[in-house]
Specification:
The protein has 3 domains: 2-146, Immunoglobulin-like (Sandwich), CATH 2.60.40; 166-580, Alpha-Beta Barrel (TIM Barrel); 590-710, Golgi alpha-mannosidase II (Immunoglobulin-like, Sandwich), CATH 2.60.40.1180. The chain has 717 residues and is of the alpha/beta class. The protein is built from 16 helices and 32 strands. The strands form 9 sheets. An 8-stranded parallel beta barrel has the order 12-13-16-19-22-23-24-25.
Length: 717
């Protein structure tokens, strides 16, 4: 019956380019790269995806690309591949045509993996297991590729192209953001359609952020181990399809749903940045399943040990590493990135474990083939590129090493700011570097302060509420005996581990949340907020909630208007200050140059109002610092060439528990210092003004921000 169906399916030679399944308005061209295959069969399925209706050998192979054209095929057709070739693990080859494999270029997937041993290319449990050969068919347990129509009516949509110095990133999870939202319809919660709801877009616009960074939305695998424990890979760092959106994020099943989300966020002036995982795939190590790349051409797609090609090189901690040194694998990554920019209209990418992408046989190389390809690409060189600058391989920590055109997650900012507000000794010098844009890490190759992505919290770690409520991680729900997740969290509980009814402890915790938020959003560099921190979101002390697709990870929208949790208006106030005062987000490093009034562009002050001495810098017990920023100094100009005349702002950070009297510095001009912010002030009250040379009481554990106004212009800012 299958042979009869195949004979009725017309197939023409087709073209080797583009790769994937391409609908041209008359039929569908199929093209699949495999350098070592001996035969490739295109497998077609009925609408249920359970019944295989045809196996069609692709008739041509050009330049290691197998291809064929089906004139009778249409969008919506479900398909997969069976790839024939040698099963020689000792040479790196793991072909097994009993296994249906996914098209690496599939634009859409339907269904999910139903785990069984049939997905293994070898016979599980046999002697020298991965050298054995498994003949079971896995097709019924596999998702299927779907021929997709990618055309979309974008109208007058344009990339917002927000300047880096204006950028404020909001890291969130597409599913978790709307799962409990009271206005989003139940059937749309957790999907792109839910996130594109007017109420959600309005919330993001009103918050004041300029970019949403989505945790992985490319199709990913729920690990078999997690499925057996009743858990899921919630974060999605286990990609199996670099072109297709995760099926469960589409309520309609159509990729246009994601395109609508992007367009509506663009309409609100908000950019969309994707967290992408090109360092590894969801197939794991050599004992993992055969789902896609392993069965198509294992020796090409994966980095293998040169002296033992049975084994994968694992610089990612996930079992495998993609082989971006292979031109076809690099092409796949570049094609995928361009697809998401040109077809899905996203505005940038955050690259998970980016060091792996730039590895060569001798280690990390900022001039690697991947780095060079991105730098010269006319599409990708114009979008925002953010590196997570580390992996777990030798020499993997490369913060500051990615070079021109890249921004980088700055975990040293995170740890230093956390330690300062916790009250640790001896962090003042590093704090100064982090507050001023981390010039020690980024001030070379004409890089800018905004290349430092500053964050205090992220998806990986404590939420802001948990950071000031827990000293230890509490990951028992992950079913790994609390061994997973970071141990060095630099958190504090201020007397009680976890939630408490003690009003004094709760007051300290809220003050510390506000201090951490103020520090983040008033620092030089690009700030990144973790979604829900403005609403006091808690994960119950879980600092590695990667497998918690439940209330642990979802935003709790009931926190709105809860005075003990709701910091929303405070975040909005901070972001408005940052937007209004350009010196708080300066696009160039400040190097203590003096203005005509003999005031440096950046001055570090002690509590006596004078510039800090070397003894003060080296005092490990000092926990107070003042930072004065002056936009009148030479060289302090914006990218448009316009300076912001007369703007002098003073930030005072007091991490000790007791109040101090901070002498406000004198100025060569007549005027007064006007209060912009005081994290210890009664909410809604305006911080008091103060004259130069006077003492200003700064409460313990608080941040104060002042702006100098000349007497001829006493208008409040």
């Amino acid at each position: 019956m299958r042979a009869a169906a195949a004979s009725r399916s017309r197939v023409w030679p087709g073209r080797p380019s583009p790769l994937g399944a391409t609908w041209d308005g008359a039929g569908v061209n199929f093209a699949l790269f495999s350098a070592h295959a001996e035969k490739v069969e295109l497998c077609l399925f009925d609408r249920s995806s359970m019944r295989e209706t045809a196996r069609i050998p692709l008739p041509e192979c050009t330049d290691e690309v197998w291809h064929g054209y089906l004139p009778d095929a249409r969008p919506g057709l479900l398909y997969g591949y069976r790839v024939h070739g040698p099963y020689q693990p000792e040479r790196g080859h793991r072909f097994n045509a009993n296994k249906l494999v996914l098209d690496p270029y599939a634009r859409a997937l339907q269904g999910a993996i139903k785990w069984s041993d049939a997905h293994l290319g070898y016979r599980f449990g046999s002697p020298r297991a991965d050298l054995s050969f498994d003949r079971r068919d896995n097709a019924r347990g596999m998702p299927k590729c779907r021929v997709a129509e990618t055309e979309f009516s974008w109208g007058d949509d344009r990339h917002p192209r927000r300047a880096w110095e204006e950028t404020v990133i909001y890291e969130t999870h597409l599913r978790g953001f709307t799962m409990t939202h009271p206005v989003v319809p139940g059937h749309l919660r957790g999907t792109a359609a839910g996130m594109s709801s007017p109420e959600i877009v309005d919330y993001l616009r009103a918050l004041g952020i300029t970019a949403v960074e989505l945790l992985p939305v490319q199709a990913f695998v729920d690990d078999r181990r997690l499925a057996g424990l009743g858990l899921t890979n919630y974060w999605g760092y286990n990609t199996i399809g670099f072109f297709a959106p995760q099926p469960r994020y589409l309520s309609s099943g159509s990729i246009s749903e994601f395109q609508v989300l992007v367009r509506r966020l663009h309409d609100a002036g908000i950019e969309v940045i994707l967290d992408v995982v090109y360092n590894h795939t969801g197939e794991g190590n050599e004992l993992g399943p055969t789902l896609c790349f392993r069965g198509i051409d294992n020796a090409s797609y994966y980095r293998l040990l040169p002296d033992n090609p049975r084994r994968c090189i694992d610089d990612t901690g996930t079992g495998n590493s993609l082989n971006l040194r292979h031109p076809r694998v690099l092409q796949m990554v570049m094609d995928s990135l361009r697809y998401w920019v040109e077809v899905m209209r996203v505005d940038g990418f955050r690259f998970d474990l980016a060091t792996t992408l730039a590895r060569t046989p001798t280690g990390f190389d900022p001039a690697s083939s991947f780095q060079a390809a991105v730098r010269q690409d006319p599409v990708l060189s114009r979008v925002k590129l953010i590196a997570e600058p580390w992996d777990v391989g030798p020499g993997g920590y490369q913060l500051g090493g990615f070079g021109a055109g890249w921004a980088e997650w700055n975990d040293r900012y995170r740890d230093t700011v956390r330690r300062f507000w916790r009250g640790d000794a001896g962090v003042l010098q590093e704090l100064a570097a982090r507050l001023s844009g981390s010039a020690d890490l980024f001030d070379r190759q004409h890089r800018r302060p905004y290349d430092s992505i500053n964050f205090v919290t992220a998806h990986d770690g404590f939420t802001l509420r948990d950071l000031v409520s827990y000293e230890q991680k509490h990951n028992e729900a992950n079913k790994e005996d609390n061994h997973d997740g970071h141990d060095a969290n630099y958190g504090a509980n201020y007397g009680v581990e976890g939630e408490t009814e003690d009003s004094a402890i709760r007051a300290v915790r809220r003050r510390q949340r506000r201090n951490l938020l103020a520090t983040l959003l008033l620092s030089q560099g690009t700030p990144m907020l973790l979604a829900g921190d403005e609403l006091g979101r808690t994960q119950g002390g879980n600092n590695n909630a990667y497998c918690q697709d439940n209330a642990t990870s979802w935003l709790d929208w009931t926190a709105v208007d809860d005075p003990d949790r709701d910091d929303l208006s405070f975040v909005q106030e901070l972001l408005e200050l940052r937007r209004r005062h350009a010196i708080l987000r300066w696009p160039a490093f400040l190097h203590a140059l003096k203005s005509k009034d003999d005031i440096k562009d950046i001055t570090w002050l002690g509590s006596d109002g004078r510039e800090m001495t070397m003894d003060e810098w080296h005092d490990p017990e000092r926990r107070v610092i003042g930072l004065m920023l002056n936009s009148d100094a030479p060289g302090v100009v914006t990218d448009t060439g316009l300076s912001v005349a007369g703007e002098i702002i003073l930030l005072i950070l007091n991490a000790q528990t007791d109040p101090i009297t901070f002498v406000i510095p004198a100025q060569p001009k007549h005027g007064a210092w006007s209060g912009l912010l005081d994290t210890a002030a009664v909410e809604g009250s305006r911080p008091a003004d103060v004259l130069p040379g006077q003492g200003r009481i700064v409460d313990g554990r608080s941040v104060v921000a002042l702006i100098f106004l000349e007497s001829r212009s006493q208008t409040a800012p």
